[in-house]
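User: I'm putting together a teaching handout on how sequence relates to shape, and I'd like one worked example. Could you take EF-hand domain-containing protein from Deinococcus aquaticus, show the sequence you're using, and then write out its predicted structure as tokens right after it?

Assistant: Happy to. First the sequence, then the structure tokens directly below it.
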Amino acid sequence: MRRTRLSALLVAALSAVFLAGPAGAASVKLRPQGEALTKAVQAALAAISTPELPVTLDTSGGPLLTLGGSGASAAPFNPDVAARLFVSGTDRRIEFNPRGPLSLQEAVQAELARELGLSAWTPAAARTGLSGADLNGDGQIDLTDLAILMNNYGKSGTTGDLNQDRRVDDADLRLFSQQYGKR
């Protein structure tokens, strides 16, 4: 009986893959300090946002972004460095060199690509990296990821919970189908 149910779910998932509709949204938690940095972050996120996967800024958490050093890390920047990461306990701060080798916009994009694990600062890389459907982290959303999701179907709090409701179910299959095959 369980095998029949899983087979039916797999057929439904594969059917949904080919009838995929628009995806959800991605929210990036960052705390930019100051108007110039906030505008640079918003512009950077707009550059990777698409109608299928709008990418928005959530300032309720994430690393603190500052222009220049502050506190214990107020040491001068090396002129060849566009940004640096400062970690103290669980707090993370990304400091941008105001006189660095890149414009603020370029430095923000480069550093956020690294922070978010994106291979490039493009809508395609964001769709793959931020959708959550790349379950094995290989940069592609493919049948291997579907197999991982199906292996966890019906389980709680595991890999494949794309909508973060603590269970892998039909809602996660629908989200996966919206991203399948996209890069």
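A couple of points you could highlight for students: Confidence is low (pLDDT under 50) at residues 13-23. The helical segments are 2-18, 35-48, 104-116, 123-130, 143-151, 170-179.
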